[in-house]
Amino acid sequence: MTVDPFLGTRAQRLFIATISIQAIAVLAIISIVFHLVSEHVDLSQANYKTIPCYLALFVLAEVFELLMAFDALRLRNVIQLAGILVFHVALVVFAAIQVHETKAALVRKPDCDGTNDYVLCGGRGTLYRKVEHLLITVPCIIAAAWLVMIFFVRALYYEFGWAIFRIVGANPAMKTMYQYYQVLLCLLKFDFFAFTGVTIQLLIVVLNRSSAEFGLTIAAIPVVLLLLLVCGIAVKREIKWCVRQYNGLSFSDVPFLWRLMSFSLFLMLASETYLTQLLYIYKLVRFYEPSSEEQYETTRATLTVFTIVAILLLLATFAVGLKCFLDFDRGLYDSKTSGQLFPRYTLLLKPRRGPNSPGEKPDSFGQPLEPRISIE
Predict the structure, then answer these.
(1) 3-class state of residue 2 by DSSP
(2) Residue 341 phi, psi dihedral angles, 5° rounding
(3) Which residues of 90-126 are buried (b: 16+ CB within 10 A; e: fewer)?
(4) Of the candidates 158, 160, 201, 161, the residue with the CA atom closest to the CA atom of residue 299
């Protein structure tokens, strides 16, 4: 059975088309909301910053989701496709939260109509009533697209099954290791989005460049991104620091170096989680401190949800990263680079000789056994 090329099937093309059409529709509606609100209010004021945050985050989210979809189809990564579905549900929740936050930002006099105050009132003929139906439409479009995406992901699941088998074979243990490996790479990508999303919101809300909080936010960007990148490279290539220089030696031959490598990778994962969570927890406290509470008044709900999700993602990344680290040097890297893994114990077998080789019986040779396929 041959593997279909990238975007070579109807399910792949329609999956990308669904995400693209949904992204265009959502960004068009949010841009209209941004334009309508910016005509009447000063978006640089703290209580109106939820609107630019809303637009910036959805631009980032839609571009990120589209790139993740292309990446998942290119890699034939079913786990990443499932992650995209979960991410899409999060977009529905975020869009629903924005209805509440936009109302909190615009409506200061809920009982009056547009004849009294077009901007601050919440009754008929007001600015909020003008954009309310647009805000409600956004989560509805995203939810409808999600239902369509489920159908195509199901088709892609069956389509990509053979491609996964070609990489890891029928070995159940190897299949499990490969699944954890894919989960970790997927989590690292979503870690990147969560961190970038929180950072963009904070940079929009905290525009005082002379403040220590602004400097801390800027300084954290390269550090966290570098840690995420290093973690991804180390797991993808199974980097064994300080061991490659000892040619021909295995981990059992150099236990001290194995421990050194273990400590190095563990420190990398721990520092990524620890440093980033310190930043997130610090920001989470700042959202509710009396001294800065007013600054985050209309963006607090979104920032809180984003920060909590980011913390949970990092904890999951740390746990799965440790599992992947324990799977180092167990054959997965060879499987990924060569396309199909033969179990490690086959390396202990004698080389196969021909039927005329001395000491062998003619009837002892035949066709090699086909690999067993596990049906799950």
Answers:
(1) coil
(2) -100, 135
(3) bbbebbbbbbebbbbbbbeeeebebeeeebbbbbeeb
(4) 201
> Cα–Cα distance between 232 and 235 in angstroms, integer?
5
Contacting residues for 89 by C-beta, under 8 A, at least 6 apart: 146
Contact (Cβ atoms closer than 8 angstroms) between residue 139 and residue 95: yes
Domain segments of the chain as ranges? 7-165, 169-342
Contact 66, 23 (CB under 8 A): yes
- Residue 108's beta-bridge partner residues? none
Cβ–Cβ < 8 Å for 313, 187:
yes
- Dihedral sign for Cα 126, 131, 137, 142, please: negative
Question: By the 8 A CB rule, do 50 and 298 touch?
Answer: yes
- b or e along 156-173 (b: 16 or more beta carbons within 10 Å of the residue's beta carbon)? beebbeeebbebbbebee
Coil, helix or strand at residue 266: helix
Model confidence over 251-302: pLDDT tens digits? 444 454 444 445 545 555 555 555 565 666 766 777 677 666 666 666 777 7
7-165 belongs to CATH 1.10.287: no
Side chain identity, residue 256: F
**Amino acid letter at 45?**
Q
Q: Note the pTM of the prediction, 2 decimals.
A: 0.75
- Specify the pLDDT at position 169: 55
Q: What pLDDT, on a 0 to 100 scale, did the predictor assign at position 309?
A: 84
What is the helix, strand, coil percentage profile of the chain, to 5? 70, 0, 30
Which region holds residue 7: left if phi is over 0, alpha if psi is between -120 and 50, else beta? left
- Cα–Cα dist 184/238, whole Å: 13
